[in-house]
Every structure is written in structure tokens, then in C-alpha cells.
Amino acid sequence: MDAPHSASLAGPESGRGIESRSIDYIPGHERHAKLRSQGPFWFLGNLHFFTISIGFVGPGMGLSAAWTALAGALGVMFGTVFMAFHGSQGPEMGLPQMIQSRAQFGYRGVALALAATLFVFVGFNVVNVSLIMGGLNLVFGLDPAAVAIAVVVAGGLLAIYGHDLMHRAFKWALMATLPLYALATVALALGVGHGPAAAPAYPGFSWVAFLTQFAISASYNISYAPYVSDYSRYLPRDTRRARLIAAIFLGASLSGAWMIGLGAWLAQRLQASDALVALNDVGSALYPGLGRVFVIVSVAGFLPVIALNTYSAMLTLLTAVDSFRRIRPTRGARVAAVLAISGVLLACALLARGNGIALLSTFLVLLLYFLVPWTAVNLVDYFLVRKGRYAIPHFFTPKGIYGAWQARGIAAYLIGFASMVPFFHIVDAASGQAIFVGYVAQRMHGVDIAWLVGLLVAGSVYLALGRSIDLRAEERVIAGIRDSDLASMAQHIAEIEQ
After folding, report:
1. pTM as predicted
2. At the topology level of CATH, where does 28-355 sit?
């Protein structure tokens, strides 16, 4: 039998060439990552103009910069809690996040969660590329189509080379962009870039705008939940959970709150509606020509984030294909997956031209709706039901203890999603016209708490259904798995299937 996921059980990563691993298990001798890299990695994950753009949402709804910054900081911290706890699963499991979700949804049933997360990864990059296209066109007059092609190709190449090169690229990008954003923040605080002719500050506060800004900011970091462990799975298994959670939380929440706050003040003081244009204005006010340097460095430093979404989309696509037709996770498979994803991304980015901030606002709301039931099910299973105890070889066969379909996880996700529908509040941010407003949301005058309802309902339903899982039987199976079985994963899976 051609057993699955046996293609790349060679030695550890050399740090050069295309990463050999994708959706397979990372054995102990290949766990070469360092805990100290996680904080800076996720700090840069939010240190860019995309996050600045999120700070434009509140002022666009009449919310003052100060209230926007507060709502953004609280929302980012809330979302990062979920992100950080998902990230702690990486070193403990040595697997991509969505492979581990087979325990809750089944070997094939996980396709439901995979569809939602693939929408997230591709959708994020569509918005990313759209913002770059619009910004570079306004600042430099560059052809949007040419910009889209260049950005997608660069992100795709980084994603193909994989984990180690991406971590190095994030480190280089952090060193380049951190001084830039620090300078822009100081300049804005000192009043550079605006004068008497600027429009007056937004004085307003409203609960609708505040909660919208909170929800969008929370969804932004919750969106990392399906793939944060993709970048922590090379850490040693004995990595302390508390330290890893703290590193991820501090890295992602500090930069996220900073950039959203910066965006809020740019929107209020400069009436900015495009982050790259705003950075160009601030830089040019400091010194002629410096604004263009700001823009170039910002875009270059953002390319690893494009790669990050493409990389995890590749893992998701391979997992989806493998769930119905067993594949070997070779380098060729990852290249083919990245090419397919990049092609779809490019087509969508070229077709989705328009108001980038409006697109961003609507997308983040939809993103939260799809992800919230999944993150609730996954975290409840990991921390409250199975408490981190899993039979890793059984993730790779529909004949293992997790089966092809897990009704508990699927039911909890669908019930959680359905419970959110009456609370949905989806509005076209460009025109202000309602796309879909649920029955309850209509009576709450635009306050959107669908995400909170989904978290509580999906998590509670799964916790109740999880009581019927025979954990003792699973523990006997786990106890019978030796380290040697993990080293010879393909052989052990073949034994399970016989």
C-alpha cells in the first residue's frame, strides 16, 4: 500500500530550498524553531498598512479617533486570545491546524471547516492585493494589473519555499518597517501632515460604530486562528504553553492596537481613506520624497503577509484534497497548490476592483461569521473535552478513531452558525445599503453581536455533545502509540487500516 504522508520523512530542514513538509507530522528531530521568534513574527503580522486601514472604519462611521483606538485595541486583544490559544497547539501536536480539526469534524467532515478557512485565506489576500493596487496607483500611477501580478508572484514564491524562508523574510521586514511606522507615529503626534485647512476632528460616539470597530478588530486577529499553529509546529514539543501563548498574544495585540490607533488618527486628522496615500502624505510632509520611500518599504514589508495567507491556503487545499483522495505531500504537490491558489487570487483581485476600505469592512464581518463557530468547537474540544490528548496517526486515515465524519463537530458548527443569522448585520460600506440584516439586528439598531452568539452557542453545543465521547477508549489507543510509531507514520497508518 502507498501509505499516506510518507513522502518527506528525511532529515530536518536545512533552511535552504523548498520546505519538505506540508500537511504531515513534524517529528521531534526536525523541531528547529525557537520560541523567541514567535513574538516578533506575529508582531510583524499586524505591523503594516492593512491593519492601519482597519482604523479607518470607526471614523468613517463618525466615531472619534480616541474611541476608535480604544475599540480597536479591545477588539484586537479579544481576538488575539483565541489566536494565541490555537497557536499553543502547534508544538504539542506538530501538525497544521486544520489537520487537527479532523478530530472534531472527521477525516472528511473537516471539509466544512476547510471551506470556511479557505475563504478566509484567499479573501484576505484579495483585500490585501486590492489595497496595494489602489494605493500604488494613487501614489505612483502604476498599472493595477501589473501590480497585482507582481505581488501575487512574490507572495507565491515565498509560500513555495515555506516555513524557514518566511520566518527570515518576516524578520527582515520587521527591521525595515518598524522604524518607518515609529517615525510616522511620532510625526503625526507632533502635528506633521495636517494644518488649519484640515477638516475638523470627528467628535462623535455611538455604540453602533464602537461595537462595529470592536467586532472588525476582533475578527482580524481571530482570522489567524485557523493557521497560527502552522507557524508554531516546528517548535519543540516541550515548549511551555504559557510562554508561547504570552509571546503570540503580546506580539499580535501590541502591533494590532498600535496600527489601528495610527489609522484612526490618520483618518481623523488627514481625512485619509487609503493607508498608503496617507503614509505618503506624512512622509512627504517630513521631507520631500520620503513619502514614496514610506510607501515602497510598506509594500515590500507586506509581501511576507501575502505569503503567509498563500502558505496556509496551500495547506488547507492539500488537506481538503487529501480528505477525499489520498495524496502524498511532496514538494510538487505544494507547488501545484500554490500555483492554483495564486491563479484564483489574481483573478479575484482583478475582478474585485473598487473601494478597498469598503471591501475590507464587509469582508471582515463575513470572515467573523464563518470562523467563530469553528474556533469555538476547536478550542472547546482541545482544552475542555480531550484536553490536548490525541492519537496523531489517526488524523491521517478515515478508518481511525476519529472516523470519516464526526457529527458532533459538524452539528455544533451548523447550529452555531444558524444561531447567528438573526443577528447578522451585513452592510455595503461603500453605499451604506443593507445586504442582509437579521430580524434581531434590525431591532438592535445596527449593533452586531452575531459573533458573540456564535461563540457561545457553538461552544456550548459541542461541550454538551462531547460528553458522549468515549475518552477512555481513546486514551487506550493513545497509550498504545509509541514514538517509533510516529517516526514510521506511514507504516502505523497502514496497520490501522488493515
Report:
1. 0.84
2. Hydantoin permease (1.10.4160)
